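Hey,
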Amino acid sequence: MAEDTTTRRAALAGAMNAIDGAGSKNDLIAAIDQALAVPEPKGDPAAIESAANAYKKAVDHCRFEVEEPVEHVAAEKLPQAWEGMASVTAQQVVAAAGRAAEQMTEAFQQGKKALECLADGVRAAQREDGPGRSELLRARNMLGGADGFFDGMVEKDAEEEEKERAREIARAGAKARHTAAVCADDAARAAARDLNKLAAEARSGHLVAKGLSPVDRLMLADTAMVDEKGAAREYNEILSANDLERSGERLDSMSPADRAEFQRMLDASRSPEERAYLMKALAAGHDMDSMRDFSQKIAGKDEAWLARHLTPVVTEVDANGDPVQATTENAFKGQKWVQGGDGQEASCVASSTVNARAMVDPVYALGLTGGPDGQEDDPDAFRERLVDEQHRVHDEGDGSRGGFFENGPPTGMDDEGWSEVADNELNSPTGTDYERQDLNSADDRRGALPEIERAVSEGKPVPIKTTGDGGHALVIVGQENGMLQVHNPWGETTWVSEEDFVNGNMDKASDQRFPDATGVHIPK
């Protein structure tokens, strides 16, 4: 039997049901044996705590050996000889180094906390599991050997009473073991979620390319876009972990001539944001002809223009700097990124896929927002191009249409088409094949969470299907502290909890018609 925590949890839930439903003595024996066959919770709490203590030492080192010296440099007046752009660049580098040092300290603190919680969870699970197993063994011993064929034909009252006493003891034991399994599973998934996110946020380490200096890597990893609402930097970095890794690989694979030309594009950029979007376009797989065109279109544009045209979803924060939990609008100058332009067409699969691709491919996004020359700022023209692109993707997924000759508005798409467009549209910009998983139960959804959260932490959107009264397609685009950031092709983004995703409350991301997550496309 597999020993992963989610499988153990499901196996013990099944054993509990089998104990409750056992009709005969032999059925009850089989159910108890089923519960006993599930392995005990694995892990060494002391070893996990030792790793957490190593993180504590790293926290102290970062704070006193890195963070405070950088803050001291930042507080000092820069040399007067550094004037103009040199001075600006120095200030930006020192500020980025300060943020990186602060984030490093925070990452080690969070890593320490995640490991401590994991150790506590494993210890609690093992403490609960042992007595539960003892109760199951006691119940099994009460029942003795299995009945033969003729033994089961007549059951005396005393035997029936003994069987029921054994059932009660076995029920309590199985419940204790299941409680322990839930504790271990929740702790393991939380640790995986938090540590995967921290790994993805070790940003400059993902960018490895010949010719890039440590300062280049630091500045590119630090660059974030801030929209007109002043969205928080830490939730809106331009380059995801996947972008940083992919762009480094693309740089190293270029010919010397192409590499030199691309370096000239970076050198000519007038802002860190412009440089970062060029790297993001490179990560999305575009060739040099496309890169030249894109570079010219965004040259000299200010930060707000770049954010508006190149990033459909911006994470808004509250007064405390935390992500706003309420539903927020995703729009280009008032025109939502919405299916059919007004939310009326049944093109949610195509529309959510178009939006997901625009989030990871700035060249594609600019084609929709800025038009052929990349300079337009017209929401009506954007709407027309957006709907045309939604229809293209819908037709390529063999989606159905209304009308006598099936040339009317989109009316839906089956799962095969959904899989096709998800992989076709998101493979190139992310460099990843997408694979569909059906989610038929809470256990399926719970088991898929670590892969979903790792993917979105790395910057790879995850399409999901929700059902109830019909079906609807959404995209998970982020995760934070046990919450999933979900983009709805009605032009909205909201946050739902992991438990809502698992337990059939996904209507919070759309409406009451679509509560159950029944399918997901996960990057391999």
